Structures
1.
Amino acid sequence: MIKAIVFDMGGVIIHFDENKYYEYLSEQYDINENKIVNAMTPLINRFDRGDITLGLLLDSISKNIGIKIPRKSWNLVFDSNAKIDGKMIALIGALSKNYKIYMLTNVNRSRYFRTNILLKINEKLFDKKFISCYLHMTKPDKRIYQYLLAKTKLMPNETVFIDDSLANINGARAIGMNGIVFKGYDALVSELKRINIL
């Protein structure tokens, strides 16, 4: 029997295209966007795992592309483009009447802070949140799913995990959790009805 539903944050509850940041830097400093992407990509997992700070991330990228990236640009682009999915917030609220609701997300401290303070996600929506940068683990590492299950005292088959990344869903399924790849609100509602969650 399903007892809990676990939600990813970025791409499910909050929508923000990281390419917007690359585009901004490319236009602002007249630098090839691929060069920026190539400089940042190897560092993102370490950043989301909490192994490096925003300052170290931007300093490293700055050295690789030959310009000084101002810290304020990181938040400026996010604050201007990130949007909360109101339908998803309402759906989570409805589901919370019958199920435990958890968040499991790969996110760095800066983005997590901005999400909570500026976008004002209601803390009461979630019984507990599992945030990669504080756990020093990221999806799809099986340890992060096992950690969630241990802390919530749930069996894998008692959970449904919703994420927009197939790799992350496969990571959850590999240890026995049920998984739904998020492809939009309507598709999710249909799938939840199909498995008798709604």
Note: The chain has two domains: 4-15+83-194, 19-81.
2.
Amino acid sequence: MVKLKVVGTTVALSASLLLAGCGGDEEASGQSNSSISEALEYTITGIEPGAGLTGLTHDALEDYENLEGWELHESSTAGMVTELRQAIDNEEPIVVSGWSPHWKFAEFDIKFLEDPEGSFGGEEGIHTIARLGLEEDMPGAYQILDAFAWEVEDMESVMHEAQDISFEEAAQNWIEENQDTVDQWTEGAEQGGGTSIALVSTPWDSERASSNVIKIVLESQGYSVTVTDVDPAVMFEALVNDGADASIAPWLPIAHGALYENHKDNLDDLGSNLQGAKNGLAVPSYMEIDSIEDLEPKE
């Protein structure tokens, strides 16, 4: 569930002036909570307006009294990452709407802020779901999809490498480096013999990573695989209306929970293929704050 305009320049200038006034070479990590909030001009750097994470961030602004007067600067995932990179290069304070798995956690030393109000809902799992009847129609593919499971660090490593090469190449490299894990997914599975299987996913880098991995694995077992990136609502509708066979993309129980509840009786939920997915507010690790409650309200 992912903006270099005037705000980015203003934040950087405000932070520089404030740090200079507090002792010249004093780093952002040595600032008080109040001065950090002032340097940020009480602004969270966000992503796309329609993203689920954007809605959760707006919820946090309502839930936390100490975020009174704060604003969410909505833009894009790319814009958020650009501002995050710029802030870290200059060791300046920044608070971003973040989620994991995402390659930024492999690229940068950043951390989630604790969320005592639970605005972001805690940890999620990424599930594998299939159309009813897939187990009978394609037992080998079903077995592989059911066995598919990996870790947050695995997904983030593919995403990170895919910033420089294609997702297909990054997925192939991960498979070659983790063949023992892949062998566990495919052990004893019936060969596909050219059978076509249609997977649906979402246009997020996390799901591009997983979909490319499972596509290559299924193809190695003799299946002809297509992956189509669609809106989450379309993803669920395709599976319940036999327009696709399976997906390894839904985030549950929060991000796609409402869609899942609407369609769960007409789907086969194979369980989570990844545990520990998370949404929240993230900051560079050099910032000496650990909780959303450490931020100060605008006076």
Note: The first helix runs from residue 6 to 21.
